[in-house]
């Protein structure tokens, strides 16, 4: 990659330069994306019901991702004996959707426009939030593009229909997704403890085809068995709320919930998913960097995304 590593005449260490995702090229023209993967920031957090701050998630995750940009092509994993994300997997950062303060509809429309541009380019959309409401326009961008199944990693069910007139907040996205005729089902993993969704929300989720697993249930099954519950042949969209992880390793979020997943539990689910299914899109949400002065939450998010992309493209034959 031009300008990276010794070949370009610069060492270009992680703390040098501009913080695009993984220090990949920035593409400002959404009609000329030309890549296998496009990163889009969605710095919207007006859907939060407790602590704001996820609007800074895209910047925080991008900066953390530079840790994994030491100039050499690919990432060698000695356990798998695979070099993931070799240089011919083109990843670009297309910047952020424009956010209009206090205007959820316009902000969501701008996010949807960005995801549609990525899909039109034939690239895999990876959207960094922002609160979980940004999943709503992400899923809406898939209208007319075939059926999808949603895998959600989260502490909360997010299946509220409406609360005081709010239908597009961060407690609503999975309900809005389940209403789409092209969303054939949801696998909701990590759901635990006292939730933002009342019992009627759980009843509605089950009635609309959701498969709901707590952290303890998922651990008892194991990562492969969790993924095996997704119907074979399904095209899968992945939405990861960082509060699906235990706040002992991911405190930088607005609604932490103890008892969450540890890193390898989710990583192994992502690897199993990539081997078994076509992954058509990813969003990762609710990273609020200011609640974690160590920066480890953002590093966790960046590391999970890069490893997941490695698994996806290795399964597609990019190795």
Automatic annotation (TrEMBL):
- In its UniProt entry, what is this protein called? Agmatinase
Q: Which cofactor does it need?
A: Mn(2+)
Give a single Pfam family match.
Arginase
Q: What is the lineage of its organism?
A: Bacteria, Pseudomonadati, Pseudomonadota, Alphaproteobacteria, Rhodobacterales
Its domain of life?
Answer: Bacteria
- Which CDD domains does the entry mention? Agmatinase_like_1
**What does this protein's record comment on cofactor binding?**
Binds 2 manganese ions per subunit.
- GO terms under biological process: putrescine biosynthetic process from arginine, via agmatine
Keywords of this entry:
Hydrolase, Manganese, Metal-binding
Annotated GO MF terms:
agmatinase activity; metal ion binding
Question: Where along the chain is Mn(2+) bound?
Answer: 132, 154, 156, 158, 241, 243
Please state which protein family the record places this protein in: Belongs to the arginase family. Agmatinase subfamily.
